[in-house]
Each structure stands twice: as structure tokens, then as C-alpha cells.
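name: query_chain
kind: protein
chains: 1
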Amino acid sequence: MDECYIVWTAAWTDFVICLLFGWIGVHKFREKKIGIGILYLCTLGLFCIGWMVDVIRYLVAALKGERIQGNKPKHLSADDALPIVSSNVMLSNGEVCHYCGAATHVKTKNVVVGYSGGSRGTSIRIAKGMSVRLGAHKAAPVRGDVQERTPGVLSITNKRGVFSGNKGAFDKKITALSAVTSYQNGIAFQFGDQQYPLETSEPEYVYEILARIVNSSEDI
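structure:
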């Protein structure tokens, strides 16, 4: 049976705030939409209809791991200390977690997606109870790339990088990291000849934390 991982993120906090206090427009003030926030405050969330619509909107965003308000990407400046967060990873002595968030393992496979051509041909009777089929040929398989996505949790400690999921899971030491590449919507970890591409909502922030750990004087 597949396991479902739910990580409490800022997006879920936004959802709860909208659910509990959206009828007075608190979430609109947090979105910096002061005018609409005042309107919600005076009309009980536009007679609760607008509030309910926003609750659904925030729930969908939380399930995707995205934030509606506070969309400015996280950034770790040179003066910032590495954050220490809670995680589902079992930590060893002296190990702390600096990042924990939802991520999706992406694997591209080349598979048969259909068939092209092919014909059953024509059956010609040559005698009673005997016929010959002419012109028959098999359909040619058509191949294409499909992506298999597996949701999970990415945790980065001062010693390890861990992705827990039903597929694509890994638990590797930071010292074994060969390369890391940040993309617009994800990040790829390279350990030796194995690559683990992950989709995440904050790839640059993850990259900055990894770079800080690798370049720091911590005992990893």
C-alpha cells in the first residue's frame, strides 16, 4: 500500500489562517491586498462566499506545496545562519536538519505509447475450408518519453541528503555529493554515476543551503 507523505509547510499555515480568520480578511491583509481585506472585514468575507472560494484556493496551493501569499522565493544571504528545522529523518549524534520540504522524484522512461500502421490484409479463399491471407503486416510500435512522478520529502542535514518516497529514495552523505544542479522548478543531486532529479518549489534555497554546508567548516 502506497504511503502518503504530508509535510507541514508555510503553505499549510497559510491555509489554516485563511480557514479560521479568512471571514474577516486576515489572509488578504497578509497578501498585501489592504483594500480587499477591509472589504472582507466589513462584509464577513463578502458574505462568506469569497471566503469559501479562498479556502479552496489555499487548500489546493497547500497540496501543491505552493504559497499564495509570501511568494517571494526564500533566500539564504551570506549573513544568515543556517536554519535548524524539524524533520522525519532519524538524526545521529551531532546531526541537525537544515531543510525539510515536499519534493517529487521525476524519472523519464522511454516506453511504447501506441502503434502505427498495421493491416490484417485480405483473405482469399482458394478451396473449401482453406484460405490465404495476403498483405498482412504488424503495426509498428511508437515510443515516447513519459515522466513518472513520485511525491516524497527532501531533508538536508549537516551530514546527509535524504529523500524519502516510494520510488527514487536515497540517503547519502554530503561528502559523497559529486554535483548539484538547480533548475527553475527543481534540483538534481549527483552521487557518483547516479543522478536524482527532484521537483521542488524552492530549488535555489535548497542549493544555497547545500552550498553553505559543503563550504562550511562543519564536520560532515
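note: The first strand starts at residue 97 and ends at 116.
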